[in-house]
Amino acid sequence: VHVSDSSSCLHGMRCGDGNCVWDSEWCDGVKNCPAGQDEANCVRVRGSNFLLEVYWTETKEWRQVCSEGWSDQQGKASCHDIGYTRDTYFQSGHQRTDSNRGFLSVKLSFNPQSSILQQLTQRLELIKRNSSEASGSQLASVGSWPWQVSLHVAGSHRCGGAIISPRWLITAAHCVSRTSSPADWAVYVGIVDPLGPVFNPAHAVSEIITHEGYNSQTQQNDVALMKLSDPLNTKASSKIRPVCLPNAGLNMTDPGKSWVTYYGPTANRGENSSSLYLKEAPVSLIPSAECNSSEAYSGRISQEMLCATKIEAGATMCNPDSGGPLVSHMDGLWWLMGEGVWGEHCNGQNKPGVYTSIRHHLDWIYYQMQVKMTC
């Protein structure tokens, strides 16, 4: 609601061009001022501890900024965006706080002349996705799943996979069994939206190890490792980071909500239908007995497989991508529980998705990594 009185803003805040908007419209993720001044500098301090908060337009909420990697330059930039001069910055030390909304972290690359709003990224490991989110698949934000990789053959996306160390990736055996030469593969990390030739650089593969017990008929032991020619620099970007392997002894009785990520087309972006985007969907793990019922897979699910289904009945979720990770959030960390094998719900049969259990293959994974260790 705009106030016609150009001399004052008794019922709101001034845009800067004579128009006024209500207080509630300032920093709400919607540009109400003609020039967008109401959303241009959404930085504030909160509470008696003066905790720095930034309005994050992607989630439409205020989020606190984590002190990790913080410098005096970022502090001065924050003061400037609030309205103070850079000389008024005073470092008072770190403050402890809990937030159920997640945090923001400063990027490694920093331009002291830019707004602090352009220097931040979501801190993934502290974000807890709540149950009010859409239960069907949705587009993932750039860098939100930093272990996700795209595996290419002849310039086209073939399968998904996950980073488990700077040198090693994990994917499905059926993805690589027919194209087993490392020279035929290129790996792309640090997800870009949409998936396409803008990736830079491509990472070469030095070795592919397919589980010796892989059976293409039963999908038994459908797991493979890829070793990169050169290690990834996981410290250079928050968009490239390994996911944790599910350690022995990890309490898996209540993994909470799990997530699958995969590449697929979208009809809502005005893009060519062949364009692939990273998509995400919340799922829940279901017991093997239920997955082996006559209504589902009639005994085809072995002890080395996991089944997961969409959270709510009627939610649209089809995962046509192979090798993509199934992850769960526990104890503040993301754990790689499985990688995609098949899912007949894509054929309209509404059956659970099937994943190779990473925990079942831990010994095999560690053995291969030890044998092929680079001295």
UniProtKB/TrEMBL annotation:
Lineage: Eukaryota, Metazoa, Chordata, Craniata, Vertebrata
Lineage top rank: taxon: Eukaryota
Entry-linked InterPro entries: LDL_receptor-like_sf, LDrepeatLR_classA_rpt, Peptidase_S1_PA, Peptidase_S1_PA_chymotrypsin, Peptidase_S1A, SRCR, SRCR-like_dom_sf, Trypsin_dom
Protein keywords: Disulfide bond, Hydrolase, Protease, Serine protease
Name of this protein: Transmembrane serine protease 2
Cystine connections: 15-33, 27-42
CDD domains xrefs: LDLa, Tryp_SPc
Swiss-Prot/TrEMBL GO biological process terms: proteolysis
Occurrences of domain Peptidase S1 (ranges): 134-370
Matching PANTHER family: ACROSIN-RELATED, TRANSMEMBRANE SERINE PROTEASE 2
Boundaries of every SRCR domain copy: 52-83
Pfam families: SRCR_2, Trypsin
GO molecular function: serine-type endopeptidase activity
SUPFAM superfamilies in UniProt: LDL receptor-like module, SRCR-like, Trypsin-like serine proteases
Organism (species): Cyprinodon variegatus (Sheepshead minnow)
GO CC terms, sorted: membrane
